[in-house]
Amino acid sequence: MDAILTSGPARGQTRAPLELVRLVGVHKHYGSGAHGVHALHDINLQVNAGEIVAIYGPSGNGKTSLLNIVGMLDSPSSGSAVIGSLLVSKLSEQARADLRCEMIGYVFQSFSLIPVMTALENVLLPLMLRSRMSKNELAAKSALANELLAQLGLATQASHYPPRLDASQSQRVAIARALVTQPRLVIADEPTSRLDSGCIRTMMDLFARYQRDHGTAFLISTRDQRQLSRVTRTLQLNDGRLLSTPADNGRQSLRAKR
């Protein structure tokens, strides 16, 4: 795999933030001719460790397309994507899957729960895909999975299968699954679309803990303004274009409420 290498800071200089995501000049087209769609236009984006970045905008403006490129579920039509210092276009499909498994937690807009697995088993699924985990490591992560479900108000639903869960419960299972590996980056596509205000506060408190304790970065797409007061940066996406990319939108850093 081809890494993008950078030298360390000179003595006395402050080390630059650890960059996890860099998109340069990214365009995305679907189809061609009169029926083609230009979903993303010249996207330039950087996400560093410990940042919580919200991509804000109405439906149909390219948010999911953007997240899918960052998550290596899709490729740009042009431009470049660097994830965790690796140039994605140089990676094989297997290498992309391995990097996704090791580095990224994903909250899908459609939840993507496995219907024949319980809520707890769905949360543990990313760990089951990691063949190198020891029994002791898996046992510790199983305890974490149960803890996450409990914190999200799902302790009594851990043994339930997805058909028995309502939309809010399914979304919270998907959130727990994204966090259970303690990933370097969480990509969350409309993670609050089915949550009430109390559940949103709980989710954001969990994100705060992961930001603080693990340096986890979050890239969140949303139409929900209730989240925006607790993110590091808000970038607006409209008609496939990032309209503003402020270094800091002046909002408070995401922190757990004391």
Q: Classify the helix fraction into a percent range.
A: 25-40%
Count of helix runs: 6
Order of strands across the widest beta sheet? 6-7-8-3-9-10
Rounded to an integer in angstroms, the radius of gyration calculated over CA atoms is 18 Å
Round the mean pLDDT to the nearest integer and report it: 88
Q: Output the structural class.
A: alpha/beta
Strand content: 15-25%
What is the molecular shape? Answer: globular
CATH architecture of the domain at 50-72 and 96-244: 3-Layer(aba) Sandwich
The strand count comes to: 10
Uncertain residue ranges: 1-8, 245-258
Sheet of most strands: 6 strands, mixed
The helix/strand order is EEEHEEHEHHHEHEEE
CATH class descriptor name of the domain at 50-72 and 96-244? Alpha Beta
CATH topology of the domain at 50-72 and 96-244: Rossmann fold
Distance between the termini: 43 Å
Give the oligomeric state.
single chain
Full CATH superfamily name of the domain at 50-72 and 96-244: P-loop containing nucleotide triphosphate hydrolases
